C-alpha cells in the first residue's frame, strides 16, 4: 500500500493528466522487434501456437493460467521469465511469494513449448518471449483479439521474491493503490481498466473473494433477485468460515471460458467477484475508471483494441539488467549453469 500522500499525489495526476504515466523503463528500452527470430527460428510462432491450441482445447482454463503468468512475470523485474524459476539452494524464486503461492499454474505448458523449441532451434528463444507469445495465443484461442508481439527479451538470472509481494496487486487492493502500482510500471489508468478485462476468463479462489461476498457485494449489486441468487451461490461455495479457501468460482460467471466484454457488464451490475475489480466501477475515486468500464461494456471493439495495445505495453516492460547479463535459458525453471 503506497503512503497516503503518494496516493493523493497520484490521484491528482490521474484526474488532471488522464493518461499520463511514468515511463520508468521506456527511455532505456533496447527495442524489441517483430521479426527478431526470423532467421534464427522462423517456426517459433507456429510452434507456440500449436502447443497452445492443444492446451486450450484440452482445457480452456489453461488460457487463463498462461495469461496470468505473463502478467505476474512482467510486474516483477519486467518480462524476463523470472516467474518461471523454481526454488534452488542458491535462488529464491517467486512461486512461493504469498501472492503467487497456490495461485499460479500452467508452468508445464511453458515447459512443453520450450522442449519443442529446444529441439527445433536450440538455445534461441527466451522463456520470457515464449510466455509473451503464449499469452497472446491464449487470448485468441478463447475468442479474444489478435496483436503482433514484439520479441527479443532475455531471461533473468535472478528472481524477485520480495518484489512479487510489493509490485503485484491483490484481491482486496484499493483503486488508488492499483493505479499507483500500474503507474510504477509505466502503465496508465486506461491500461489498468483494459488489462483487468482479462478477468473475463479464469477462476478465483474463495480466499480471494470472501471479503467481497461478505462485504459490500450486497450494496453494490442492489439486491435484485438475480444478484441475490448469485450471491447465495457464491456464499455456498465460499462459507464465511471454514477450510474452503481453495474452492474456486469463475470471475465472469456469465461466459467463464470466453474472452469477451461481459466482465464489464458484471461491474456495471455491481457483481464483480473481486473487491479489486468492483473498485474500478464503484470506488469513490473512480471517476475516470468508471467511465472506462462503461465504455468497454458498451463497445467491445474499443475494449479489444485497447486490450491489445495495453498487452503490448505490458509486454514492453523490460528488465534492463537482463539485457546486460540475461540469457536464453535451456530450461525455463532454471538459470543456465
Ligand atoms: C488490476 C489488478 C489485478 C488484480 C488485483 C488481480 C487479482 C487477481 C486475483 C486475486 C485472481 C484470483 C487468483 C486466485 O484466486 O488464485 C486473479 C486471477 C486472474 N488474473 Fe488477475 N489481477 C489483476 C490484473 C490482472 C491482469 C493485468 C491480468 C492479465 C492481463 C490478469 C489475469 C488474470 C487471470 C487470467 C486470472 C485467472 C487465473 C486462473 O484462472 O487461475 N489479472 N487476478
Ligand atoms: C513496444 O515496443 C516496441 C519495440 O520496442 C515499440 O515499437 C512499440 O511502440 C511499443 N509499444 C507500446 C504500446 O508501448
Automatic annotation (TrEMBL):
Location in the cell reads: Secreted
- The highest taxon in the source lineage is Eukaryota
Show where the Plant heme peroxidase family profile domain sits.
31-336
Question: What Gene Ontology cellular-component terms does the record carry?
Answer: extracellular region
- Annotated Ca(2+) 2 binding sites: 200, 252, 255, 260
Which residues of this protein are annotated with the site description Transition state stabilizer? 68
Cystine pairs: 41-121, 74-79, 127-332, 206-238
How the cofactor binds, per note? Binds 2 calcium ions per subunit.
Signal peptide interval: 1-26
- Is Transcription regulation among this UniProt entry's keywords? no
Q: Provide a GO biological process annotation.
A: hydrogen peroxide catabolic process
Q: Which residues participate in Ca(2+) 1 binding? A: 73, 76, 78, 80, 82, 94
Record EC number: 1.11.1.7
Asked whether the keyword Glycoprotein is assigned, the reply is yes
What InterPro entries does the record tag this protein with?
Haem_peroxidase, Haem_peroxidase_sf, Peroxidase_pln, Peroxidases_AS, Peroxidases_heam-ligand_BS, Secretory_peroxidase
Binding positions for substrate per the UniProt entry: 169
Catalytic residues identified in the record: 72
What role does it play? Removal of H(2)O(2), oxidation of toxic reductants, biosynthesis and degradation of lignin, suberization, auxin catabolism, response to environmental stresses such as wounding, pathogen attack and oxidative stress. These functions might be dependent on each isozyme/isoform in each plant tissue.
- Family membership: Belongs to the peroxidase family. Ascorbate peroxidase subfamily. Belongs to the peroxidase family. Classical plant (class III) peroxidase subfamily.
- Which protein, by its recorded name, is this? Peroxidase
The species is Daucus carota subsp. sativus
- Cite the source lineage: Eukaryota, Viridiplantae, Streptophyta, Embryophyta, Tracheophyta
Amino acid at each position: 500500500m503506497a503512503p497516503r500522500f503518494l496516493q493523493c499525489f497520484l490521484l491528482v495526476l490521474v484526474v488532471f493528466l488522464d493518461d499520463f504515466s511514468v515511463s520508468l523503463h521506456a527511455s532505456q528500452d533496447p527495442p524489441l522487434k517483430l521479426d527478431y527470430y526470423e532467421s534464427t527460428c522462423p517456426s517459433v510462432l507456429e510452434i507456440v501456437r500449436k502447443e497452445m491450441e492443444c492446451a486450450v482445447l484440452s482445457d480452456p482454463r489453461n488460457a487463463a493460467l498462461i495469461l496470468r503468468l505473463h502478467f505476474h512475470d512482467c510486474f516483477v523485474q519486467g518480462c524476463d521469465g523470472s516467474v518461471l524459476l523454481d526454488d534452488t539452494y542458491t535462488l529464491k524464486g517467486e512461486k512461493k511469494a504469498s501472492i503467487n503461492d497456490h495461485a499460479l499454474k500452467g508452468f508445464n505448458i511453458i515447459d512443453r513449448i520450450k522442449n519443442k523449441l529446444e529441439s527445433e532451434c536450440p538455445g534461441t528463444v527466451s522463456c520470457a518471449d515464449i510466455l509473451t507469445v503464449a499469452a497472446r495465443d491464449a487470448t485468441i484461442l478463447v475468442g479474444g483479439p489478435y496483436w503482433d508481439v514484439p520479441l527479443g527479451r532475455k531471461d533473468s538470472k535472478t528472481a524477485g521474491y520480495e518484489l512479487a509481494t510489493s509490485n503485484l496487486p491483490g484481491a482486496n487492493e484499493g483503486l488508488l493503490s492499483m493505479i499507483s502500482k500500474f503507474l510504477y510500471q509505466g502503465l496508465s489508468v486506461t491500461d489498468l481498466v483494459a488489462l483487468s478485462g482479462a478477468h473475463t476468463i479464469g477462476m478465483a479462489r474463495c480466499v480471494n473473494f470472501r471479503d467481497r461476498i461478505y462485504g459490500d457485494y450486497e450494496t453494490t449489486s442492489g439486491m435484485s433477485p438475480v444478484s441475490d441468487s448469485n450471491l447465495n451461490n457464491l456464499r455456498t461455495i465460499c462459507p464465511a468460515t471454514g477450510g474452503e479457501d481453495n474452492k474456486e468460482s469463475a470471475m465472469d460467471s456469465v461466459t467463464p471460458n470466453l474472452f469477451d466484454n461481459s466482465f464489464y457488464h458484471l461491474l456495471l451490475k455491481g457483481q464483480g467477484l473481486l473487491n479489486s475489480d468492483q473498485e474500478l466501477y464503484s470506488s469513490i475515486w473512480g471517476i475516470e475508471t468508471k467511465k472506462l468500464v462503461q465504455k468497454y461494456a458498451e463497445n467491445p471493439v474499443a475494449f479489444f483494441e485497447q486490450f491489445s495495445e495495453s498487452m503490448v505495453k505490458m509486454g514492453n516492460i523490460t528488465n534492463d539488467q537482463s539485457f546486460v547479463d540475461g540469457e536464453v535459458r535451456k530450461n525455463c525453471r532454471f538459470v543456465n549453469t
